Amino acid sequence: MTDELSRRDFVKLGFAGAASLAVAPTVDAAGAPGAAMALPTRALGRTGHHPFIFSLGGQASLEQPDKHDVSIAIINRAIDLGVNYIDTAAAYGRTRDPSKQRWDQDGISQTNIGEVMATRRKEVFLASKTDDRTKDGSLRLLEQSLRLLHTDHLDLWQIHNVQNDTQIDQIFGKDGVIEALISARDQKMVRFLGITGHYDPAVLAKAIDRFPFDTILMALNAADTHYLPFKNELLPLANQKSMGVIGMKIPARSRLFKEGAVNTMKDALGYVLTLPVSTVIIGCDTVEQLDDNVAIAKSFAPLSVAEMSRIEGLAANNLPNGHWFKKPAAAGSGVAEEDQNMA
Known about the structure:
Blueprint: H1 7-23, E1 54-56, H2 68-80, E2 85-87, H3 108-120, E3 125-130, H4 135-148, E4 154-159, H5 165-172, H6 177-186, E5 190-197, H7 201-210, E6 215-219, H8 230-233, H9 235-240, E7 244-248, H10 265-273, E8 279-282, H11 287-298, H12 305-315
Parallel strand pairs: 1-8, 2-3, 3-4, 4-5, 5-6, 6-7, 7-8
């Protein structure tokens, strides 16, 4: 196994996550303490929110133009089942019209989620993102997000898909997006601030060393350990900073699955949930797929060292499909495939 998970590492990474699950207080669907609830939850860093360990991502059907009815059904069903964290982004399902600015193109994902939020906003912790790197552009995107999501505030506003040092310089430079995040928080338009990425863990490590973000959304799956491992290079630092950690790319848009490799969501989801994460987001294509994912998360138990090793070994049989979204290994080989609609 590449970068073998030792027993000591597993104790720090796996059982730490399991412990945080075991001691999490019972909460109601909106994350408020006190109400009886059977779903396993974990603390989202310092935010005070305790999400169900499975959360709903805003891609898959939710961002597709011909999937309105199934999207609304998925969102409502997720909330009915106790999912209390929903993630989206201004970029999800946005048309790529070069003649228009980002904030003049309404994304399908936020539009669909907003239709449900019009009546169910208080039931979820709502997260969205800005893919603009400037203060002014990001604040315009925030106005769009609030309008489409039918809310007067976001629980979490995140900088979307940070990939390289040039973007870091833009983010923290004069009139950069970090100024928008701080301003929006000061004006109570957003409650918490986060950063996201799946391209290069070293870049995100630099960012969270420069600013006390409340959360980080990072790529984590069974193939991760074999190349540019977020698990090793970023996850421990985020845990050290007591950040809320949200895992994504769990099935790598189903590319992780292959006969002779990882081929069940139970293995894919169980692997990541054994790590010290707060929750994971997964986009769903159907209500049935959502139901299956929730059932797996609801019955989750931390995996053993041997099981983690077995799943990593299986993932090695389907590379690079498990990390197609990361920085390419060879210099000059282009960029990772872009599935965020940020162009």
